[in-house]
TrEMBL record:
Keyword flag Aminoacyl-tRNA synthetase: no
GO CC term (a single one): membrane
UniProt keyword Ubl conjugation, yes or no: no
Protein's name in the database: ABC transporter permease
GO molecular function, one term: ABC-type transporter activity
Species: Thalassotalea euphylliae
Membrane-crossing segments per the record: 25-44, 179-203, 237-259, 271-295, 307-326, 356-378
Keywords noted in UniProt: Membrane, Transmembrane, Transmembrane helix
One Pfam family of this chain: ABC2_membrane_2
Length: 391
């Protein structure tokens, strides 16, 4: 074994010992891995419940006696008078204050064929009220359509003339594509985990060591700055990779507790997806560690490194958010680091064919960018201004 490799090995062991000695940093590093899958499971179950179930909706009916059939249609869809609300739910629905007002002239206007204004009064900016409002509007719309059809039939008109065209929809999406909410959340958490898990380790091994005067002593030894940076990078990136592996394992278990069959979707992390995701995320973990070390060494103190690096590192982690709002994504985004990996992950979750050329190119580019950062940082550490935080 060469002396150079032995030095690098000793430096890596030293970095890992110091990293695992800091229990709080390790808790921060792995907290997202454990909490993110649980959050995905809870949010998915809540969203599926809202999409599938029809919980009771309670509204104040004014003039219900004038339109008994409309009130019956509403009751059939579990939209009930506020007076029937259980005591535990009464306060919530009183605060929402949804009111349906039926005019006194409802019966006469119906006979005369006039347009009847049924007033739905509610706070449309209140998010919990949106689903009940949508359900009430659907029932009133269906009830009005049924009355219109009956009037046409009574006049001897075939109601089919109202629908000269019938759009037959054929969904080509894979069953896994219907689990979009899970794939979007998982993609975001994986990228954030890759960028954030090794953050505290990287800052402590750079700005922290400088404040403890450990870095100065280390640089006095006959070891090249490149090996010092590589050792720190190996430790921080390894923690991020371990965090990602843990997140994938816990997610693959927790997702089994979500009944996706209720929305006709399937989602699972099999061995192929697991390996492909790791192949995409390992270069990102290396790039994140390189960026964290690079900017930490530019800061003058530990606190400045924490605030600056956290803010800067969050920017690439928000790339998937930005991509979500671009409907017609240009092709060159597939080949950019981070953006390309995010797009490939999306295709992977949808069960689409992977663009292996883009996969290889983005991985190589990301690692090459990391290598440039490492070499630049190693060169900078030869300057006293950077080591003593004088610049």
């Amino acid at each position: 074994m060469s002396a150079g490799f032995s030095q690098l090995k000793a430096l890596i062991i030293k970095e890992f010992k110091e990293a695992f000695r800091d229990k709080r940093a390790m808790m921060v590093a792995f907290s997202m891995s454990l909490l993110a899958p649980v959050m995905i499971m809870v949010m998915s179950k809540t969203m599926i419940k809202e999409m599938v179930d029809k919980p009771p909706v309670y509204a104040e009916f004014v003039g219900a006696e004038y339109a008994p059939k409309l009130v019956k249609d509403l009751a059939d869809e579990n939209i009930l008078p506020l007076a029937e609300a259980e005591e535990s739910d009464l306060r919530i629905w009183q605060e929402r204050g949804i009111t349906i007002t039926i005019p006194e002239t409802y019966g006469q206007d119906m006979i005369e064929g006039k347009i009847i204004n049924v007033v739905l009064n509610a706070d449309y900016s209140d998010k919990p009220s949106l689903a009940p409002i949508r359900r009430i509007k659907d029932v009133v719309r269906d009830h009005a359509r049924a009355i219109g059809y009956k009037r046409l039939i009574m006049r001897g008109v075939d109601v089919r003339i109202l629908q000269p065209l019938n759009l037959v929809e054929q969904d080509r999406a894979q069953p896994s594509s219907n689990a979009m909410m899970i794939s979007i959340m998982l993609g975001l958490y994986l990228l954030m985990g890759a960028f954030m898990s090794g953050l505290s380790i990287a800052i402590d091994s750079s700005a922290g060591e400088r404040e403890r005067n450990v870095l100065e002593m280390l640089l006095c030894q006959p070891v090249s700055t490149t090996k010092i940076v590589l050792a720190k990078l190996s430790c921080s990136a390894s923690i991020s990779i371990l965090s990602i592996i843990l997140m994938l394992v816990v997610t693959s278990i927790s997702i089994g507790f979500v009944d996706l069959s209720k929305i006709g979707a399937t989602f699972s992390i099999d061995l192929y997806m697991f390996v492909a995701l790791l192949g995409l995320l390992i270069p990102i973990c290396i790039l994140a560690a390189a960026l964290q070390l690079f900017f930490s060494f530019q800061a003058k103190s530990f606190k400045e490194a924490q605030s600056t690096v956290t803010m800067l590192i969050m920017l690439p982690a928000f790339v998937p958010f930005i991509l979500m709002f671009i409907d017609d994504r240009p092709m060159w985004l597939d080949w950019l680091p981070v953006a390309g990996q995010s797009i490939i992950m999306e295709d992977l979750f949808k069960g689409l064919v992977i663009n292996w050329s883009a996969f290889a190119f983005t991985s190589v580019t990301t690692v090459a960018l990391s290598a440039v950062l490492v070499m630049t940082l190693a060169q900078k550490l030869k300057s006293e201004k950077v080591v003593m935080a004088l610049s």
